[in-house]
């Protein structure tokens, strides 16, 4: 297997991720382009429609002007005919008739000009309508092309996502295979004993390789008491400890005067008796700082502290053979709402 296979696979995954981001950015850019085309189409069509309205207004004005020119021409022709009758009767001169004929020609010229103007305006209106259709067709083609590019890019996005998922799956498989070169413990710790020694040894499936001692994050001690002493034990009760290897001078009943002992607090105890015929209790460090050199499996001896009583009371109790006073923590009395009298 290639020693750089995982690194190369990671590079392929990163390259494919960059490609995917590029395609997504392209889709976003095409969406912006489509929005811009739609806005431009709206403005352009509005401009062409406004021009069509202007040409239609101009056509209406030219039509009115042409109609007026037509009426003027008819009036001029009728007047010319009457002038001919008057000339035949000798009422007017021939010069007057010729002047009237000139006016008829002028009216006819204006009539023709007005008709030509109407024709030009109609052509302009037709051209404006053609411009509107051409504009709509042009922008529709642009929109269709942009939509086609968009869907093609979206298809590339999906294809790239599929390729990326495949590469990520391959990378995960390669990484998992790479871990097969090593046997990892389920938790952090120190190697205590090696079951397989030497290089190139054959390992059987399910066989033990080594024993590991977990890293100590919170220290606790394990103590065993006789069943007869179990009623004297409660959670939160103080215990004095003596660790193997640390000299201690203990004064029974006087923890403050003892030297080399360390205090602890009971956090729990078993509800079922242990195979050795005793009950196990667990105590943790709460106040004193325990020695940093103590390790798992070291020996320890514990002394449970009962209630604080006057010395005369303790002497009287021992002289009469009474058992130690059962100590009930104050917080439990408060929780239960019961104050016990002793």
List the helices and strands and how they pair.
Blueprint: H1 5-89, H2 94-179, E1 189-194, E2 210-214, E3 220-225, E4 238-243, E5 262-269, E6 279-284, E7 300-304, H3 311-320, H4 330-336
Antiparallel strand pairs: 1-2, 3-6, 4-5, 4-7, 5-6
Helix pairs in contact: 1-2
Short description:
With 342 residues, this protein is an alpha+beta fold. It has helices spanning 5-89, 94-179, 311-320, 330-336; strands at 189-194, 210-214, 220-225, 238-243, 262-269, 279-284, 300-304. 55% of the residues lie in helices and 12% in strands.
Provide a count of the helices.
4
Q: For this structure, what is the CATH homologous superfamily of the largest domain?
A: Helix Hairpins
Number of distinct beta strands: 7
Q: What is the string of SSEs from the N terminus onward?
A: HHEEEEEEEHH
CATH architecture of the largest domain: Orthogonal Bundle
Mean pLDDT equals: 80
What percentage of the residues does DSSP assign to strands (E)? Answer: 5-15%
* The first-level CATH class name of the largest domain: Mainly Alpha
User: How large, in whole angstroms, is the Cα Rg?
Assistant: 56 Å
Q: From the 3D structure, determine the CATH topology of the largest domain.
A: Helix Hairpins
Can you offer a commentary on this structure?
The structure is a single chain. With 342 residues, the chain is of the alpha+beta class. The chain is rod-shaped. It has two domains: 5-179, Helix Hairpins; 216-336, Beta Barrel (Elongation Factor Tu (Ef-tu), domain 3). The protein has helices at 5-89, 94-179, 311-320, 330-336, and strands at residues 189-194, 210-214, 220-225, 238-243, 262-269, 279-284, 300-304. The chain has four helices and seven strands. Residues 326-342 have low confidence and may be disordered.
């Amino acid at each position: 297997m290639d020693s750089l296979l995982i690194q190369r696979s990671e590079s392929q995954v990163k390259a494919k991720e960059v490609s995917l981001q590029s395609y997504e950015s392209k889709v976003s850019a095409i969406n912006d382009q489509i929005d811009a085309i739609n806005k431009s189409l709206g403005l352009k069509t509005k401009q062409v429609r406004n021009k069509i309205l202007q040409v239609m207004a101009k056509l209406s004005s030219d039509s009115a002007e042409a109609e007026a020119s037509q009426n003027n021409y008819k009036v001029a022709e009728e007047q010319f005919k009457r002038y001919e009758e008057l000339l035949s009767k000798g009422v007017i001169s021939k010069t007057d008739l010729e002047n009237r004929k000139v006016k008829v020609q002028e009216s006819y010229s204006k009539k023709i000009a007005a008709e030509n103007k109407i024709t030009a305006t109609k052509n302009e209106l037709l051209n404006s309508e053609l411009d509107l259709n051409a504009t709509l067709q042009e922008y529709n083609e642009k929109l269709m092309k942009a939509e086609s590019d968009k869907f093609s890019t979206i298809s590339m996005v999906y294809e790239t996502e599929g390729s990326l998922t495949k590469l990520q799956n391959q990378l995960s498989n390669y990484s998992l295979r790479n871990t097969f070169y090593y046997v990892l413990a389920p938790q952090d710790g120190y190697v205590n004993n090696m079951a397989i020694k030497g290089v190139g040894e054959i390992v059987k499936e399910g066989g033990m390789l080594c024993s590991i001692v977990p890293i100590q994050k919170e220290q606790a001690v394990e103590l065993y008491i006789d069943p007869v002493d179990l009623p004297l034990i409660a959670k939160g009760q103080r215990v004095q400890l003596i660790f193997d290897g640390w000299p201690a001078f203990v004064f029974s009943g006087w923890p403050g005067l003892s030297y080399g002992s360390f205090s602890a607090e009971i956090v729990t105890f078993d509800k079922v008796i242990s195979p050795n015929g005793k009950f196990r209790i667990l105590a943790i460090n709460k106040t004193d700082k325990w020695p940093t050199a103590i390790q798992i499996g070291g020996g320890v001896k514990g002394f449970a502290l009962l209630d604080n009583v006057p010395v005369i009371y303790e002497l009287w109790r021992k002289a009469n053979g009474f058992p130690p006073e059962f100590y009930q923590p104050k917080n439990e009395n408060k929780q239960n709402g019961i104050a016990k009298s002793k």
